[in-house]
Amino acid sequence: MSKLYSVVRLKCPRCHKGNLFTKNNPYSFKDSMKMPDRCPVCNQDFQIEPGFYIGALWTSFPIVIFIMTLLSILLLVLIKMELEWFFVAITVILLLLQPIIIRLGRAIWINIFVDYDPEAAEDARNK
Ligand SMILES: [Zn+2]
Fold first, then answer.
1. What's the pLDDT score for residue 2?
2. From ligand 1's centre to the CA of 5, what distance in Å?
3. How many angstroms separate the CA atoms of 3 and 12, rounded?
């Protein structure tokens, strides 16, 4: 569950205190993907290697599939939307959600490589 907390709150996977992203608002377009190089609280490296977050494509893609599946059920089956409008709707919705999806994908990605360390969190609390 601790990984889920880090992903949903976009917190450092190691200490669960520091923010993964510089800005909290995913729609401040200029800086919405900006991440600090290191966790401001426990000093965990957020840029583990050059191009680290290219791999996050593999974690954001399933999120897109999941959202598309939900939207398909909602719009096609429940609302019985015309197919043309469905494609327009799904494109607009996915574009609008893009910054959130990318952030979640990155948070899941770094959580695959970095585990929660209660001592790091404890050290941070005592600072
Ligand atoms: Zn941290």
1. 85
2. 13
3. 10
What is the pLDDT, as a whole number, of residue 58?
95
Give the predicted TM-score (pTM) of the model. 0.90
Ligand 1 centroid to 124 CA: how many Å? 8
In degrees, to the nearest 5, what angle opens at C-alpha 49 toward C-alphas 44 and 51? Answer: 125
Per-residue pLDDT reduced to its tens digit, 93-107:
999 999 999 999 999
Ligand 1 centroid to Cα of residue 60, in Å, is 22
